[in-house]
TrEMBL record, chains A, D:
Residues 1-21 are annotated as: Disordered. This is Sulfonate transport system ATP-binding protein. SMART domains: AAA. Keywords: ATP-binding, Cell membrane, Hydrolase, Membrane, Nucleotide-binding, Translocase, Transport. Signal peptide: none annotated. Pfam families: ABC_tran. One of its GO terms (molecular function) is ATP binding. Its EC number is 3.6.3.-. InterPro entries: AAA+_ATPase, ABC_transporter-like_ATP-bd, ABC_transporter-like_CS, ABC_transporter_ATP-bind, P-loop_NTPase. Residues 25-241 form the ABC transporter domain. Gene3D superfamilies: P-loop containing nucleotide triphosphate hydrolases.
From TrEMBL, chains C, E:
InterPro entries: MetI-like (IPR000515), MetI-like_sf (IPR035906). This is Sulfonate transport system permease protein. GO terms for biological process: alkanesulfonate transmembrane transport. It comes from Actinopolymorpha rutila. It comes from the Bacteria. Gene3D superfamilies: MetI-like (1.10.3720.10). Residues 1-25 are annotated as: Disordered. It is found in: Cell membrane. The chain crosses the membrane at residues 40-58, 100-117, 137-153, 159-178, 254-276. Signal peptide: none annotated.
Length: 275, 339, 289, 275, 289
């Protein structure tokens, strides 16, 4: 089950560990460039089995690139590393990526087989609040509905590693909370390793064991979240974490009013993050 | 009763620009060609002969040469009004008439000793035993209805005393190298092949047992024909008359200058080897341009009768196909020129 | 950019609200200039052919069209009736249809399989694609002698020739269609662990379906057209044979009947594929909607 | 300049007002159904010129449907109403909707002409932090970058009505704040009427003059935001508005911990919002 | 689903990190089974034709292929050299190329314009689409008499015939291509207030370009094929004429030279369009990448 993303070279045989004991993800010195621009610059990342890691980062900082590399979809990544990928790995893409020519239910059960598949798919759709839409075409769904179908698809296969790229981005607050609950229950039941990309710092703190910030092509900041669930955003530890992370993202006083670089003064732009 | 030939009544209207005054078909042929008269002529061999003999610029009218010959192409071009004179064998004028075109033959050429200088021979597939026409019984014979080779097959069967049902007629178009290939592939037992294809077939498949036999019939007619509407235009009629003269001289020139003809036409123009050219000249013998068309008309009538019977067509009178005013034109031209 | 005129008044409908959507017929006054072609016009596709028929009738009636070149429509109708009554047209059509369908069925199957083999595998592509392009570039008339050599002059040769003709558009369109499937869907298929066959079934075939169906539009018409060539050889029946015979005998009216039959067969086959297209591709939202 | 969306019938001529004085948007009794499901159910909406309206609503509640109707893209909408559309109206679609075959700059300047167009486009791209990416293809951009291109495209034409469907959804906190600033500056300069769909209640309060909640196919709640800018999220009036709006969205105690219907107990699902 | 074997070891690279991306050549050991065809193999497209050539050579050398039916490759080479030396092949090719290019240019232009007129306008569609479908369904051999009638037997007729042949695939593919442009882009065009012409230029043409180019692949090959038909009529030069002449004289080697020329012309034209395809459609990310 140990396999590699992109052009990863494998560590010496001696370093390798039995599949179950080792980390779910362990990549080192990942490098990925597009033309001249280096997006991942000797990035190291390890995720333990069952660990829930949230990944923050500026727009264009390379989060999706990293996820694609871990999912083994990028053929031009270099580095050394070992990705212990359990049989079941699920990816939620940033675009919902539903096959437009398959109905919603078939999109959810894509790649599954055996009896009861349709039933499981139906159940999963009900969990994301889309009971009754099984036979719709993807383009008949609203943006948030499509996102939920993609979520249902990734959860129905009870993954052991979940790579999710902003899976809640187009959801309203209540639906988002429901989906958090869904994800949490899945984590409790199957203990998958999770790498969740999000832009919502509160969401990251509420869900993750560890929050990473991707800056300049590397994991720049790592914050362990030790608050016991249910984590209350009004908890001062929560607030402290929040403002720490926001500071790393360039915002000094938490909240929407940026006290960071004045937005009128041209400052270090997001695109400069990854030179 | 679906045959179309009974619609003979329609008058040709799209002949190339008949003048205001129509020339009756029994009127004296005008001799002087008015200035500016143009003919479109599909007679590539004569064109080449005129070119080689240096006569081509002397034609007393303007000419547009078309590389068109043979039945289907000339009739198609006639209908479209794109051609004034076509060069064909015996069958096309018959079929043209059956399709409602009004045509007349204005020149006729035959071969001296036609039985021994046939255009076609019967190709026999390797491994098939046909020594004489009598052996054709029960054989698969390639047959292209509407083409000269098709008519020949019917005439051969008639001569052999066979009915169509005594053999298997396999309908194949006789274009290109279809017949030699069909023989070589043993898809048919017998197929009429002509010209250089005979030589080619024998040299390629002779060692496998491919043979040819003569059919013993006359297949030598060569005609120039035109549409009635064209003949009714006095200017064009005069031009056609002039062309027939040049045509006749060209045939004689070809006969007299075999080497020039081989080099200039077969080798340079048609891309054959010199040997092929020599063979063609030898097998085609010498031209015979008679002043009297009566025997030819009689033979044509037989052909018409046979075709009409076998292909379910109305009868035609052969004499109606010939414009006998032109019969002396060619012979006079050679007489004046020859000595 | 957009128009700056103020709105022209339309009738006020006090409360059109409870009317079910489909029954309101007030034409909408719309802001955005409509750039697409709008909704299909009912029977719109009949306009062109009918116009053509009209021109033809007018030309024949006024004598502008020489009946020896193109028979008048009414002549064609009576000739058709004659041909139907004496059984020639139906019999020829039946024989031809059998050949066409057989060739079509085999050609579609083989073409699709080759497209899959070549589209999903570089080795397959290296082996298959070039020869098919060559086959396509070589005039079928020139290929015929070889086909006759290999398959004789019987039905086999005829069906093979049709098959080869059908195969080309099916192959090229399907190959092109599947090659242009968005790579995002391929990535998705990989991450959900689709097997080869499931990948073909769930992603490749439906993704290449629009291309395949376009190829089919060429294939169905091509199958009928191939008859003209194959039925010149050792055929004593078939619509192509009927036409060829009529051509050599210059029976213009029968030729034109043949042409009309071809036109109708072509329009009908093409229309059938378009119908399938519309049904099978409901998931698309395109300019045409 | 007065035109209509879909099958809207025009109010009686007497009711019509001069273009400049009347509302930018005034639709009444909008009805839109998909098959059996009624998504917009006699919805009334009016927006004054220069007004900034935020639209909240559950996923699948019909927000995008409403925007499409107002943009005149939906041919099956019924109702009476008048959409006073200024010459320049911009739509930011929920999907960024960049033409894949046009380079980024050409996407931004699409539909503009005249001299200086390229310069304006370049400037606009720089404003959204994408200077230097003018010649990239859209599919070479990250999700958030694509969203910013779409934003740049809608802002460069200095619209008088801006219909924006979650334009900041995939942006990180800092970039989002920058984009807020950009939008605010545009509003100050050109005073367009804005209808902004968002899932972020704080964003809605921070930016809008009025916040609407779409429920059951109608505008169910309307809240005027009277706090003077800059609006501080820690302002108690801000917090009060936030919790009121969240309550309308089904969340009783503000924050991420839902005290609403227990997420394990099947409850009124989002899709039931628009029966 | 995916494989459950543990990874096979590859050589350890202590620090491959500073190596510029392009130079690392270690084959990646990958998790997701690759479902697409992978990257293009260099000169892969030459494999099929070369294999064909190999078979042909082998068949000819061993005598399995009768040289009387299909000349041996070396015969073809020497014949080609002869034909080139005596100037016949280049001269004929030049004449044919001129006809083909002229017909191609006009056909592409007219086909594209018709496709736009018919694709963007229901009235245009009603008028144009049916007749083109009919044209396509009618055998060109049967159409030829009419074309001769209208355009004579000269160059005009030849170019028109080629044009008509080219027009059909260009029209159908472009029409289909633009009709299947995603409606979301049409909506976008409407909201940014694109005018008709800008819409055509920015959305329709680039959106239909993949379809157009596929049509072009058929058109370029079709133009060469049409020569076979038109150069049988009143032609004294051209590659089609050369082949027809060789056929009547049974010059197998020249026929095969013609076939090879056709094959090469077809492969080259098709390859050229594919190259344009690759260059012009860089914005796509497809299965083939
Ligand atoms: N195919 C490509 N060609 C060139 N550049 C690319 C390509 N794909 C991604 N990039 C660039 O790489 C950088 C990282 O992209 P990535 O999608 O990983 O960002 P991200 O962190 O996911 O951003 P976002 O939060 O906006 O989704 C971006 O600047 C993007 O423009
Ligand atoms: N073409 C369609 N056919 C059928 N149903 C549709 C279609 N388009 C939208 N719907 C349905 O209409 C409802 C409203 O869709 P809409 O896109 O307006 O939601 P939304 O409020 O924008 O949601 P989100 O926040 O998830 O984007 C959804 O339930 C959706 O499934
Ligand atoms: Mg991303
Ligand atoms: Mg929406």
């Amino acid at each position: 089950m140990a396999t590699y993303a992109g052009r990863l070279t494998e560590p010496a045989a001696a370093e390798r560990q039995p599949a179950n004991a080792g980390p779910a993800v362990d990549v080192r010195s990942l490098v990925r460039s597009f033309d001249e621009r280096t997006v991942l610059d000797h990035l190291d990342l390890a995720i333990e089995p069952g660990e829930f890691v949230a990944l923050l980062g500026r727009s264009g900082s390379g989060k999706s690139t990293l996820l694609r590399a871990l999912a083994g979809l990028d053929h031009d990544v270099e580095g050394t590393g070992l990705v212990e990928v359990p049989r079941n790995v699920s990816v939620v893409f940033q675009d919902s990526r539903l096959l437009p020519w398959q109905r919603v239910l078939d999109n959810v059960t894509l790649g599954l087989s055996g009896p009861g598949t349709a039933g499981k798919g139906r159940e999963s759709l009900a969990e994301v609040g889309l009971a009754g839409r099984e036979q719709a075409w993807p383009n008949q769904l609203s943006g948030g509905e499509q996102q939920r179908v993609a979520l249902a698809r990734s959860l129905v296969r009870e993954p052991e590693l979940l790579l999710a790229d902003e899976p809640f981005g187009s959801l309203d607050a209540l639906t988002r909370i429901r989906m958090h609950g869904l994800l949490r229950r899945l984590c409790e039941r199957h203990r998958p390793a999770v790498l969740l990309v999000t832009h919502d710092v509160d969401e990251a703190i509420a869900l993750a064991d560890r929050v990473l910030v991707l800056t300049d092509g590397r994991v720049d900041t790592e914050v362990e979240v030790t608050i016991d669930p249910p984590r209350d955003p009004s908890d001062p530890r929560f607030a402290e974490l929040r403002s720490r992370l926001l500071a790393h993202l360039g915002i000094v006083n938490g909240g929407l009013q940026a006290a960071g670089p004045d937005s009128d003064v041209p400052s270090r732009r997001p695109e400069e993050v990854s030179r | 009763g679906l045959s179309k030939a009974d619609s003979n009544g329609t008058d040709g209207t799209n002949g190339s620009g008949a003048g205001d005054r129509k020339l009756a078909l029994d009127a004296q042929l005008p001799i002087t060609v008015p200035k500016g008269t143009t003919l479109t002529i599909g007679d590539p061999a004569t064109q080449k002969a005129l070119e080689l003999s240096g006569q081509i610029d002397k034609l007393p009218f303007k000419v547009k040469w078309a590389n068109i010959s043979g039945g289907p192409q000339t009739t198609e071009a006639f209908r479209a009004g794109a051609l004034d004179i076509g060069s064909v064998a015996d069958i096309p004028p018959i079929h043209a008439t059956w399709t409602g075109l009004h045509v007349r033959i204005v020149a006729a050429k035959f071969r001296v000793d036609p039985i021994h200088h046939p255009i076609y021979q019967l190709g026999i597939a390797p491994g098939v035993k046909v020594r004489s026409l009598a052996d054709l019984r029960g054989k698969k014979i390639a047959y292209s209805p509407g083409q000269a080779q098709g008519a020949l097959v019917l005439r051969v069967l008639q001569k052999a005393g066979l009915k169509k049902s005594d053999v298997t007629l396999v309908e194949l178009p006789s274009t290109g190298d279809v017949y030699p290939n069909a023989l070589a592939g043993k898809q048919v037992d017998v197929a009429p092949i002509g010209g250089v294809a005979i030589k080619r077939y024998l040299s390629k498949y002779g060692k496998d047992g491919g043979t040819t036999i003569p059919h013993g019939l006359r297949d030598d007619p060569g005609h120039l024909y035109t549409q009635v509407a064209t003949l009714e235009d006095p200017a064009k009629a005069a031009a056609i008359r002039a062309y027939v003269q040049y045509w006749a001289r060209a045939q004689i020139w070809m006969d007299k200058h075999p080497q020039q003809w081989i080099d200039g036409y077969y080798v340079k123009d048609q891309g054959l080897s010199e040997e092929d050219g020599r063979w063609l000249v030898k097998t085609s013998g010498h031209p015979d341009i008679p002043a009297d068309w009566k025997p030819a008309i009689a033979r044509q009538q037989q052909t018409i009768d046979l075709l009409a019977r076998e292909t379910d067509k109305p009868k035609l009178t052969a004499a109606d196909l010939f414009d006998q005013r032109f019969a002396p034109v060619a012979t006079d031209a050679i007489k004046n020129e020859a000595p | 950019m957009t128009t700056t005129t103020t709105a022209t008044a339309t009738a006020t409908t006090a409360s059109p609200v409870r009317v079910p959507p489909r029954t309101v017929t007030t034409a909408p006054v719309r802001r955005a200039r409509r750039l697409g072609p709008g909704r299909p016009v009912r029977f719109g596709s009949a306009v062109g052919p009918l116009l053509l028929l009209g021109l033809w009738s007018a030309g024949s009636a006024t004598g502008l069209i020489d009946p020896r070149i193109l028979s008048a429509p009414w002549t064609v109708v009576t000739t058709t009736i004659d041909l139907v009554n004496d059984g020639r047209l139906p019999a020829n059509l039946a024989v031809s249809a059998q050949r066409a369908f057989l060739g079509l069925a085999i050609g579609i199957g083989v073409g699709t399989l080759l497209a899959l083999a070549s589209g999903l595998n570089r080795l397959g592509e290296a082996l298959i694609d070039g020869p098919i392009q060559i086959k396509r570039a070589i005039p079928s008339l020139a290929l015929l002698p070889l086909l006759i050599l290999w398959f004789g002059i019987g039905e086999t040769m005829k069906v093979v020739t049709i098959t080869l003709g059908v195969l080309v558009p099916v192959y090229i369109h399907t190959h092109n269609g599947l090659r242009t499937i968005d790579s995002r869907y391929v990535e998705l298929a990989q991450t959900v662990g689709l097997g080869r066959w499931a990948f073909v079934r769930k992603v490749v075939l439906p993704g290449a379906l629009p291309g395949f169906l376009l190829g089919l539009r060429f294939a169905v018409v091509g199958a009928w057209l191939a008859l003209v060539v194959v039925e010149q050889i050792n055929a004593t029946s078939g619509i192509g044979y009927m036409m060829e015979l009529a051509r050599t005998y210059g029976q213009t009216d029968i030729i034109v009947v043949g042409l009309v039959v071809y036109g109708i067969l072509g329009l009908a086959s093409d229309g059938a594929v378009r119908l399938v297209q519309r049904k099978a591709l409901t998931w698309r939202r395109t300019l045409a909607d």
